[in-house]
């Protein structure tokens, strides 16, 4: 029996994920050639699959992989009812970024979510449309605005890239986006609300919650123990 | 979950037939935007969305009020006019099936507000009595406009009034808002030149400054929030920070919100409140009393209608009466209310007042099953 561990397929996330495994004493066999997306861990019944980070979250949700390294933001955003389908086994200390609510710096009167609530409530009357929020984080935005802050009257506009440019482009008034240093937001004259941090995300080792054999479960627990003990 | 018509649907049609209402048919497939615009983005995960070939967002109708109003606007039908409906609605729910039946009456354009409100409550009650003859029913009435009148009579600044009015109907949000207003947060510090402009109350200078910031950031000054709108709110916020909700005002608000009484004694209880708080609720209370008299004039069983001053719904298109009717220990069987802003929001050229109710047939079916 074998379990599948999904790792980011390229870039810094891939390097850092491999470094974590090495530090935990697991040797990932070199890929047979550069174009191969599969390999194994030496001496363990663990197969490695290289996927994109957002695919990893989706596959964890579907239960088609057993373990995966992906961002907490993607887990919470991509997997419906994520707590029932996945569990965070370890936080890995890289890929740190915050999902935040940001408004134009020129909105001198808006510093908090309560301010934004006021503005959203009057928006329709003044401008004949609802306040628009550009984001790729539908689920996180809805939870934060509707459930946590009781803000109902806004519309989400889907943004598939360069979200920080949406207010200047006129396609949205406010954005919810991911930021690590805040410099992109500042460059676009946007400010983060005082209580506008929705999630402090980082790369995590995530476990799919699904029935598996005792043998596979032991392998999975061994991988998690090694990573947590690194 | 079956989608068959409940056995008592014929009784409901009979109740409609006895009244001067137009039975209306509504398309199952509806444009999604009006629902999301009116109820908010949170509705998105509770409706069934699909797309037309051209990319327009469509949904299975999640309720009837908005499509009835849209059809009314499109048909340019004269008012007043009452519409009745009976059919399936589609919502994703944690408990219960996703398809269930609702019936109701929407009363559009009747200018005698008190009479129309009372008729809506009485019709809802008559409908339930027909299909649940042996069940004791309790109607609970709330009044959005009366709450707003209390806020105005207390002389609260506009910013506070809108915040509290918005929280009306949600005990948790109202508590948070009251808490914030009686303990204002530390004053935000502004850098120059904003601090001086605020200190001088120079709205025009501030607007010019905001305009410069917006142009600098490449923001349109007309597509979204405008410079003078932002400047006005900056100054308003600064003013609010220097005042706090007095304990008298807070006590009066709490006293008002705790009023719960049978409708027979409600006008008197509100008059007592006016005297004790030293306030006058004016036209809003006159309308309340006229409505209460009209409801009682419909001959509902004594004591079965209650007034709860804190009862409301946190949706911004309800403007006056809100009500629900329940059997003992049941979830509401009927929800209703007045929505005088809704038709304008949906695109009507002239304001059209509206009041209506909707009945949950699946809940009635469950109660009838228990009784059998």
UniProtKB/TrEMBL annotation, chain A:
Q: What is its EC number?
A: 2.4.2.17
- Molecular function (Gene Ontology), one example: ATP phosphoribosyltransferase activity
List GO terms (cellular component aspect): cytoplasm
- Give the keywords, sorted: Amino-acid biosynthesis, Glycosyltransferase, Histidine biosynthesis, Transferase
Family annotation (CDD domains): PBP2_HisGL3
Leader sequence residues: none
Where is the ATP phosphoribosyltransferase catalytic domain positioned along the sequence?
53-227
SUPFAM superfamilies assigned to the protein according to its UniProt record, in alphabetical order: Periplasmic binding protein-like II (SSF53850)
The catalytic activity, as recorded, is: 1-(5-phospho-beta-D-ribosyl)-ATP + diphosphate = 5-phospho-alpha-D-ribose 1-diphosphate + ATP
Tell me if Ribosomal protein is a UniProt keyword of this record. no
Which sequence ranges are marked TM in the entry?
none
Enzyme class, UniProt record, top EC level:
transferase
Which is an annotated Pfam family here? HisG
Q: Which GO terms describe its biological process?
A: L-histidine biosynthetic process
Q: In which pathway does it act?
A: Amino-acid biosynthesis; L-histidine biosynthesis; L-histidine from 5-phospho-alpha-D-ribose 1-diphosphate: step 1/9
Q: Which family does it belong to?
A: Belongs to the ATP phosphoribosyltransferase family. Short subfamily.
Biological function = Catalyzes the condensation of ATP and 5-phosphoribose 1-diphosphate to form N'-(5'-phosphoribosyl)-ATP (PR-ATP). Has a crucial role in the pathway because the rate of histidine biosynthesis seems to be controlled primarily by regulation of HisG enzymatic activity.
PANTHER family linked? ATP PHOSPHORIBOSYLTRANSFERASE, ATP PHOSPHORIBOSYLTRANSFERASE ATP-PRTASE
Name recorded for this polypeptide: ATP phosphoribosyltransferase
Q: From which source organism is this entry?
A: Aquamicrobium aerolatum DSM 21857
UniProtKB/TrEMBL annotation, chain B:
Q: Which GO terms describe its cellular component?
A: cytoplasm
What Gene3D superfamilies does the record tag this protein with?
Bira Bifunctional Protein, Domain 2
Question: Any idea which positions bind L-histidine?
Answer: 63-65, 91, 102, 106, 313, 317-318
Span of domain Class II Histidinyl-tRNA synthetase (HisRS)-like catalytic core:
30-172, 210-364
TM annotation in the entry = none
The record's subcellular locations are: Cytoplasm
Q: Which InterPro entries match?
A: aa-tRNA-synth_II/BPL/LPL, HisRS-like_core, HisRS/HisZ, HisZ
Q: Which family does it belong to?
A: Belongs to the class-II aminoacyl-tRNA synthetase family. HisZ subfamily.
Q: How does it assemble?
A: Heteromultimer composed of HisG and HisZ subunits.
Function recorded in the entry? Required for the first step of histidine biosynthesis. May allow the feedback regulation of ATP phosphoribosyltransferase activity by histidine.
Report the protein name in the record.
ATP phosphoribosyltransferase regulatory subunit
**Taxonomic source organism:** Aquamicrobium aerolatum DSM 21857
